[in-house]
């Protein structure tokens, strides 16, 4: 079930939340709306769901104009960050709720709920209350409840935002596997670049109410449309007026040509398998270079070392609009 958002505009008072946004969500795909807090991504998701109405523009679901349809007629499943569980109902009854209010036959409800609880690995917790589950388990219950009514579109608003880092990692792996099994068109909102890059087929970068770029994770990382996308999707540093990935920089003892510039190592830090070195180049902010331990040892990287630095040939670079950039990874 494909989704087309065409020229959507939304204001809250004087604040422009969405400014002429157009996005196509392919059928059966897993699309991330990625961007900073307040950028408009959740507003866009809520307009697709029918929980907010756009001031202008259209939302088409599978070619049908759904712009003014209420949420219940859009056949979408919605999962919020904070679960929105019915605290007095068991896990089984929470998942069954949408089917029961649609007056589905009891036998059908039982079969569907048991199927979903198996799918999300909660079958042994069917009789527990939500408060008796961990955060990750409650979020899986919320996903099962959203899937119970067989939605054509699944919408997730920061689904893992309230969970700790380890549980988030586990659940995003699980979400990718779940999506591949159920094959429902899925859109999820996140401000976590790694989450979007790891899980999504397509990423829509949203900032200040506008779409900055739409593409696959590889396209955004390797061919960013502008300096905002370059900065937001992955680590960056600045060298000679351009943004570049720290791991796309090479260091030499002799001038290799190709636009290399001369610098002095200011600081070195080892972070796990990675070595980070900051070079002072002219009067610019220090340039961050990331290397493997083997590379750093071979070059003899230490504070005070004099080295030449340049981007790897073919590495993506984007001219910066500003000569100041916070040091990444400090």
Automatic annotation (TrEMBL):
Entry EC no(s): 7.6.2.9
PROSITE patterns the record matches: ABC_TRANSPORTER_1 (PS00211), ABC_TRANSPORTER_2 (PS50893)
The organism's place on the tree of life at top rank: Bacteria
Major enzyme class: translocase
GO cellular component, one term: ATP-binding cassette (ABC) transporter complex
One term of GO molecular function: ABC-type quaternary ammonium compound transporting activity
Protein name listed in UniProt: ABC-type quaternary amine transporter
UniProt source species: Kibdelosporangium aridum
């Amino acid at each position: 079930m494909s989704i087309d958002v065409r020229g959507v505009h939304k204001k809250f008072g004087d604040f422009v939340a969405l400014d002429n946004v157009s996005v196509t969500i392919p059928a059966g795909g897993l699309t991330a709306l990625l961007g900073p807090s307040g950028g408009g991504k959740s507003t866009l998701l809520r307009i697709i769901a029918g929980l907010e109405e756009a001031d202008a523009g259209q939302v088409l679901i599978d070619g049908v104009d759904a712009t003014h349809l209420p949420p219940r007629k859009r056949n979408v499943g919605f999962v919020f960050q904070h679960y929105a569980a019915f605290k007095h109902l068991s896990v089984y009854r929470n998942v069954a709720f949408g089917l029961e209010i649609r007056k589905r036959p009891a036998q059908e409800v039982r079969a569907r709920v048991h199927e979903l609880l198996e799918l999300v690995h909660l079958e042994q917790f069917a009789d527990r209350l939500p408060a008796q589950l961990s955060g990750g388990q409650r979020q899986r219950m919320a996903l099962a409840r959203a899937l119970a009514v067989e939605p054509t579109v699944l919408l997730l608003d920061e689904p893992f935002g309230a969970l700790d880092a380890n549980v988030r990692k586990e659940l995003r792996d699980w979400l990718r596997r779940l999506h591949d099994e159920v094959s429902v068109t899925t859109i999820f909102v996140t401000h976590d670049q790694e989450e979007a890059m790891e899980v999504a087929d397509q990423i829509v970068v949203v900032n200040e109410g506008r779409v900055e770029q739409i593409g696959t994770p590889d396209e955004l990382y390797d061919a960013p449309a502008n300096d905002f996308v370059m900065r937001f999707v992955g680590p960056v540093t600045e060298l000679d007026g351009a943004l570049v990935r720290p791991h796309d920089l090479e260091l030499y003892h002799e001038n290799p040509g190709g636009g290399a510039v001369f610098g002095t190592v200011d600081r070195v830090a080892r972070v796990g398998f990675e070595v980070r070195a900051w070079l002072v180049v002219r009067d610019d902010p220090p340039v961050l270079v990331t290397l493997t331990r083997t590379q750093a040892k071979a070059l003899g990287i230490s504070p005070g070392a004099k080295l030449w630095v340049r981007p790897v040939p073919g590495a993506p670079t984007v001219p910066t609009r500003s000569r100041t950039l916070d040091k990444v990874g400090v």
